Structure of Flagellar biosynthesis protein FlhF:
Amino acid sequence: MIVKKFQAPTETEAILKAKDELGSNAVVLNVKTLKQRGIFRLFRKDVVEVTAALEENEFISNMNAAKHQPASPKAGSTFTAVVDEKLDVMNDSAVIEEKLDSLHNMLSQQMNKGGAPSPAVARAYEEMAAAAEKEPVSQEKQTKENNNSNFKYLQLIYNKLIDNEVNEKYANAIINEVSGSIKKEASIDSLLGCVYQKIILKLGEPVYMTKGDKPKVIMFIGPTGVGKTTTIAKLASYYKLEKQYKVAFITADTYRIAAVEQLNTYASIIECPVNVVYSVDEIAQSLEDFKDFDLIFVDTAGRSHKDKEQMLELHELRDMVAGLSDTFDLECYLTLSATTKYKDMLDITGMYADIPDYRLIFTKLDETCAYGNILNIRMATGAQLSYTTTGQNVPNDIEVINEQAIARQLLGG
Ligand SMILES: Nc1nc2c(ncn2[C@@H]2O[C@H](COP(=O)(O)OP(=O)(O)O)[C@@H](O)[C@H]2O)c(=O)[nH]1
Ligand SMILES: [Mg+2]
């Protein structure tokens, strides 16, 4: 969403400026008169500031359309008609009284394109309206105007979250929390700031691997093909080459010969030893070989979370390592592809729910632009976020999750 402010001596001129720059589908979010203060009052007139918004893709298509055909001010757009009509009657005082309501309706129409208002926004609005009615008549109108604009802003923010595939349940929860604490008169910027902070709080401080007092076993779990082995190679290269830690590999992925070869290839490039374990019992012996190492990466088979037997084996493997806690620390990383549907992700996390304290890695962010699932799964599991990966290049395409960038992305960049 593009939000811009336009100033002019009158509201009519400010709206025309907005329309000129953003195009006919722009939505007026707020109108306010900026009074000059102090000494400036003597030299400058008051100005009217209009805050207008437009969906980014509409902005781009407007720009493209402008390139290809001359823009006509009355080019058959309903918004153009409504604004022009509004401008014609702006001097009629009775109509001015209706101004905010009609702007509100116009925005509702825009929003209804994307479905009904969010229950949380509707509830917030009803509560605000009820509170306004209790106020003295003189304040009621002002409060109603403020409520209308807060309602519009919240709905725009809610729509953006839904666009980015934040699940409705969590989008409503965030809007609920924000609407409980907003002041009567809030700007789009302060509401965005408030929602941004809530999202950052919900994403939580990300965690990353560190060397401990004991050798650390780092176990990668997750569905087939999400990028577990590739991510292990990225992290192992970093810790071996940049940090000079002693790094070793164990692979329990013996279902596919190619999987063992894949890990062997990475291991030989960075000169790290690899053990292959064919049964759960062999893991203890294998770890014993590496008890002088700092980090021991354990790659598990790309298990289908729907295969109960394979899942049982994975649990046994994890429990066996956890049982060696006198000698080894254990960290588990559940690896998920950001391109997986939310419903499937819930199925997957459900199958790993018995594994305590796993951390989350999201791969393939380069293949999607909707990051909602990162927030959804963080909220659904309560697991801490750790890394995101953005491509096939080893060792480059990985970083500790940047929660601020994710929050910005969820709110439209
Ligand atoms: N686009 C993209 N591809 C990735 C990423 N991580 C891994 N891959 C690719 O996904 C495929 C499966 O990776 P692999 O590590 O074998 O998955 P595993 O079965 O979970 O071990 C390979 O082709 C990887 O190159 C990523 O962040 N982005
Ligand atoms: Mg693998």
In short: The chain has a mean pLDDT of 81. Residues 228-229, 253, 259, 299, 302 surround magnesium ion (ligand 2) (CB under 6 Å).
